[in-house]
Hints:
Helix content: 25-40%
Largest sheet: 5 strands, mixed
Strand order of the largest sheet: 1-7-6-4-5
Number of strands: 13
Protein name: 3-oxoacyl-ACP synthase
Amino acid sequence: MNQPVVSLTDVACYLPGKxxxxxxxxxxxxxxxxxxxxxxxxxxxxxxxxxxxTAIDMVEQAAAGLVQRHGHDVISNVDVLITHTQLPDMPFxxxxxxxxxxxxxxxxxxxxxxxxxxxxxxLALKVARQLLAAGEGRTALIxxxxxxxxxxxxxxxxxxxxQASVPGDGAAVGxxxxxxxxxxxxVECRTYGEYANDMTYTTEPxxxxxxxxxxxxxxxxxxxxxxxxxxxxxREVPEVTLAVCDRIGMSPRDVGLLVTNQPNRVFLRNWREAxxxxxxxxxxxxxxxxxxxxxxxxxxxxxxxxxxxxxxxDIVLMAAFAHAGDFAGAAALRWGGRG
Length: 339
């Protein structure tokens, strides 16, 4: 028996506030051992969440694009809601329940994913595809919010570090349906659990993230860790991408569009070269938005669709790796166009 066809029917995104230029962080920059590292070359611009703006607020803004194109019933009748928030507004639970309420939904399934990181959209596609194909509903909404740039990385002590100038904030939603409009052709997800402990949150003096005390929390980067992450990312994204390409019988150089997460310019260049994808077929908004973490793939896909970079009939590849390399995923779909 053939598996039912499931499609990524549409995506929509939201970028908060006005673009913030690289000079914003330059005014705070202090001597940093990692200042010259290629991982932390600042983008020209990025966006920050506003004070008091929640992940739910961001998702609501992103979902407005879907409502405008498809009507509110498409959102309110969603059967499966899958969310990922980079920085949960509350530490004990994700945003799924609040998003469902805000958007007027009564889904049968609400899943908050956290392990997917920068590859969360791909992981969510896999989960949505499996649930809909198994008869658990006809529509799913994927909601991704990246909101750490204007909060964690803009703390007075953290923004002096080289790492602070790279992240940007944004949100995106994807509408997944039991249909053949824009069929998801293949998805590959891989977990590399041996690297899970290499992503660390540090303070000076040391303390657990929830304990009170002096010192602002940030990501614990060292030259050694960066070298390992570069090697893993350079290997993992091409590996999962090629696995998907093998499954659909295509070479990456022949697809219409490659959309990846965008940690920095080095990864973007290395992935293009490894996959032999021309610059024109790899969506790159790093200098406009910075590192959007898990929101990078759907935001870049929405922009590529909106400005005509990808057209009906194109094969779209999506690929990313997460954290220090403990997860990676890729997916392919045939874009059916925006009605």
